[in-house]
Amino acid sequence: MPYMIIGGQAVLLYGEPRLTADVDVTLGIDTDRYEEIEALARTLDFRILPDAPEDFIAETSVLPTMDGSSGIRVDFIFSNTPYERQALGRVKTVTLGNAHVRFASAEDLVIHKIVAGRPRDLDDVRGILRATGGLDNAYIRRWLVEFGHTLDADFLRLFDGLADSDRRGDDS
Fold first, then answer.
1. Using alpha carbons only, how large is the chain's radius of gyration in Å?
2. Segment 66-107, tens digit of pLDDT
């Protein structure tokens, strides 16, 4: 099943170290396959957090779980959009112990964080820009323009402002 780690765990790979208490996993499947993920979560001893998981998934496209042994929250995010399919094809596979883990590319992480737009996400983008050279800015800009049209937001201006502040060396 195609997947990629996004969120704070991916920021640890590309950006500046920060505390994060959860794992966000984007799945390359639609919500109609939620029963497979629910079964997998139960097999892994992950507690399903919503009382009515099918209703929650239908509303949010997310299945929140908690690892029974560590207490770490793991959110499974259902997505099978053209953007996500392309992002899943651009993952960076990292070997952690005996596991090969698929992380979103730095560019796709920047896109996710810009669209989310919370202050913590924008700080993460600043850290990624400082720590990672040679990003495919044309790719980032193309998707930010498309998401901006869809969501009626100027994500490109936000990205350009963050990139400019990174070039200046400030955090404004």
1. 17
2. 999 999 999 999 998 899 999 999 999 999 999 999 999 999
pTM of the model as a whole: 0.90
Rounded to whole angstroms, the Cα distance separating 165 from 172 reads: 6
Q: Cβ distance 154 to 148 under 8 Å?
A: yes
Query: Two tokens at 86?
Result: 């392309």
Tell me which residue of 111, 121, 113, 170 sits closest to 144, measured CA to CA: 111
Instruction: Kindly give, in sequence order, each residue whose CB lies less than 8 Å from that of residue 159, ignoring residues fewer than 6 positions away.
Output: 110, 114, 125, 140, 141, 144
Give the separation between CA 60 and CA 122, rounded to whole angstroms. Answer: 23
Q: Are 128 and 114 in contact (CB under 8 A)?
A: no
